[in-house]
Design a protein that fits this description.
Blueprint: E1 3-7, H1 11-21, E2 26-30, H2 33-42, E3 47-51, H3 59-69, E4 74-79, H4 84-92, E5 97-100, H5 105-130, H6 132-135, H7 144-156, E6 163-166, H8 173-183, E7 191-195, H9 204-209, E8 210-211, E9 223-224, H10 226-230, E10 234-238, H11 245-257, E11 259-260, E12 269-270, E13 274-279, H12 283-288, H13 294-300, E14 303-306, H14 317-332, E15 338-339, H15 341-349, H16 355-370, E16 375-376, H17 383-390, H18 399-417, H19 422-429, H20 433-442, H21 449-454
Parallel strand pairs: 1-2, 1-3, 3-4, 4-5, 6-13, 6-14, 7-10, 10-13, 15-16
Antiparallel strand pairs: 8-9, 11-12
Helix pairs in contact: 2-3, 7-8, 14-16, 15-17, 18-19, 19-20
C-alpha cells in the first residue's frame, strides 16, 4: 500500500489528513520533526506533509535532513498565509509544493493523486532509460512462421491470460513479450523484465518481491520488488526454467492469490500486473526430472507460443540482416549499404545456431571492422559462415558437375585463405603448384576485383 507521513505539531491537522487519505493510503503521523524523521528512516514513505512551524525542529531544517538521505520522497509544506515567503524558501530547497492552512479536503486529494501520477511517470522514465535498447527493438520478419507467431500473440494481448513463450536462445522471445504488452490495454503501464538466469539464487526472492528496511543484513532501506514496480503493467519472467524450485512455490502462490508481501513484512500487497514468461528449456523434461513444478507450468502456459529457430525460417534471414545493417551503419557511420549476392547466399546457407542474436552480432562486427566498404562480400564474413557456403555440396547437376563445383570451391577457399599465393595454397591443398594452376585455368577462377582492393 502507498504510504504517506504527516509531520505537524497540531493533532487536529494530523487527524484531518489521516481521515481524508486513509481510505486509499496508509497514513503515518508524527507530532514533531524528530519523530517524523524516525518514522521516515524505518518506512518506505512516498509523500511527506510537513508543517513549517514546529516547537523542536522547524520544517525547513527537517526538509534539509530529509534531503540529505532521501532525494526521492515527495515533501509538501504546510504553512499559514503569513509565512508564504518561508514556503517559497522551502520550494527552493526541494519541496514539491505547499498548502496553506486551513486547507480544503478536495485540494488535498487532488494534490496527492497528482503526486502519485508524477511518481509513476518518473518510474516509467527510469525503466525506459534502463531498457531503451530493448524497447526500441522491432520484430522484422517475412516468413509465414513468424506471421503465425505474431497473429497468436496479437490474439492473446487483450486478455490477462498467462503466456509462455518458448524457443531457442536468441530467437527473440523478449521482443514477442514486449509486442504482447504493446498490443494490450496495459501498454501505457510499465513492462518489467526479470532475467531469471542472471539473478543469483540468494537474491531471487528480494529482487522479485522486495524487502523492508532491516529485513536482513545489508537491508539499510526498504526497496520495492520487480512485481511491485510493474504496478498495473506486465511482468516478464525470462528463462523461467532457471528459477529455483523453492521460489517457484512462492510464485505459484502469488499467481493464485494475486497478492504478495515484501521480505520482512506481513502486510499484503495486491498484485495487479499481468505475467508473461519465456524459456529456452524443455519444461516438460524439467518437470520429469523434478526441477520445475508441474502446477506452475500449467499456470504459466495458458497460451503457449513457440518461436521457430532462424534456420527453419530462412525467409527472415536477409530482411533481418538488412535491418541490422541499416541500424549499425547509422550508429557507426559506416557507408555500407548492402551484401553481395554471394555473401547473401552464405548468410542463407548458414544454420545460425545463435539465431537472431548471432546474426545481429555478426553484422555489428562486420560494420565495425569493414564499414569503409560499400558492399559486404564473402571475404568480409566470419570464416564459419563463409565455410557454410563453400563446403555445401551442390544440389543440382550430374555427379561430375557436382564434384567439379565442390573442387572449385575448395580452391577458391584456399586461394583466399593465403591471399592468392599459389605456392602456399597448393601446399595447403597438398597438390603441386602446377596442378593448382591447371585447375585455376580449367575452372576460370579469377580474383575478384572488389576483393583485390578491399579484402
Amino acid at each position: 500500500m502507498k504510504k504517506i507521513l504527516v509531520i505537524d505539531d497540531e493533532k487536529s491537522v494530523q487527524e484531518s489528513l489521516k481521515l481524508v487519505l486513509s481510505d486509499k493510503y496508509k497514513v503515518f503521523t508524527a507530532g514533531s520533526g524528530k519523530d517524523g524523521l524516525e518514522i521516515l528512516s524505518n518506512n518506505d514513505i512516498d509523500i511527506v506533509f510537513l508543517d513549517i512551524l514546529m516547537p523542536d525542529i522547524d520544517g525547513i531544517k527537517v526538509l534539509q535532513e530529509i534531503r540529505k538521505d532521501n532525494q526521492k520522497v515527495i515533501v509538501v509544506m504546510l504553512t499559514a498565509i503569513s509565512k508564504l515567503s518561508t514556503a517559497v524558501e522551502a520550494m527552493k530547497l526541494g519541496a514539491y509544493d505547499y498548502i496553506t492552512k486551513p486547507f480544503e479536503v478536495d485540494e488535498i486529494r487532488v494534490l496527492v493523486e497528482k503526486i502519485y501520477q508524477d511518481l509513476k511517470i518518473r518510474q516509467n522514465i527510469e525503466i525506459l532509460s534502463d531498457e531503451i535498447e530493448k524497447t526500441s527493438g522491432t520484430i522484422i520478419f517475412k516468413s509465414q512462421q513468424m506471421r503465425n507467431v505474431l497473429d497468436l500473440a496479437r490474439k492473446a494481448a487483450p486478455h490477462d491470460s498467462s503466456v509462455l513463450i518458448t524457443g531457442q536462445t536468441g530467437t527473440g522471445k523478449e521482443l514477442v513479450a514486449r509486442f504482447i504488452h504493446k498490443e494490450s490495454e496495459r501498454r501505457e503501464e510499465s513492462f518489467i523484465p526479470i532475467h531469471c538466469a542472471a539473478i543469483p539464487e540468494t537474491l531471487f526472492e528480494s529482487e522479485i518481491f522486495g524487502y523492508e528496511k532491516g529485513a536482513f543484513t545489508g537491508a539499510f532501506k526498504s526497496k520495492p520488488g520487480r512485481i511491485e514496480m510493474a504496478g498495473n503493467g506486465t511482468v516478464f519472467f525470462d528463462e523461467i526454467g532457471e528459477m529455483p524450485i523453492g521460489l517457484q512455490t512462492k510464485l505459484l502462490r502469488v499467481l493464485q492469490e494475486h497478492e504478495f508481501s515484501r521480505i520482512g513484512s506481513n502486510e499484503p500487497i495486491r498484485m495487479e500486473a499481468r505475467v508473461l514468461a519465456a524459456t529456452s528449456r524443455d519444461l516438460k523434461s524439467e518437470i520429469k526430472s523434478g526441477r520445475f513444478r508441474e502446477d506452475l507450468f500449467y499456470r504459466l502456459s495458458v497460451i503457449p507460443i513457440e518461436i521457430p529457430p532462424l534456420k527453419e525460417r530462412k525467409d527472415d534471414i536477409l530482411p533481418v540482416a538488412y535491418h541490422f545493417l541499416s541500424v549499425f551503419a547509422a550508429q557507426t557511420g559506416a557507408r555500407t549499404k548492402s551484401f553481395s549476392s554471394a555473401a547473401e547466399k552464405c548468410l542463407l546457407d548458414y544454420d545460425w545456431p545463435g539465431n537472431v542474436r548471432e546474426l545481429k552480432n555478426v553484422i555489428e562486427r562486420i560494420l565495425v571492422l569493414k564499414g569503409n566498404k560499400d558492399i559486404i562480400d564473402v571475404c568480409d564474413l566470419p570464416e564459419d559462415i563463409r565455410g557454410s557456403e563453400k563446403s555445401r555440396i551442390p544440389e543440382k547437376g550430374s555427379f561430375v558437375e557436382q564434384v567439379a563445383e565442390f573442387e572449385k570451391r575448395l580452391i577458391v577457399d584456399a586461394m583466399e585463405k593465403f591471399a592468392w599465393n599459389k605456392s602456399k595454397a597448393a601446399q595447403y591443398l597438398k597438390i603441386s603448384r602446377r596442378i593448382l594452376s591447371y585447375k585455376i585455368e580449367k575452372y576460370e577462377i579469377r580474383k575478384n576485383k572488389q576483393q583485390d582492393s578491399d579484402c
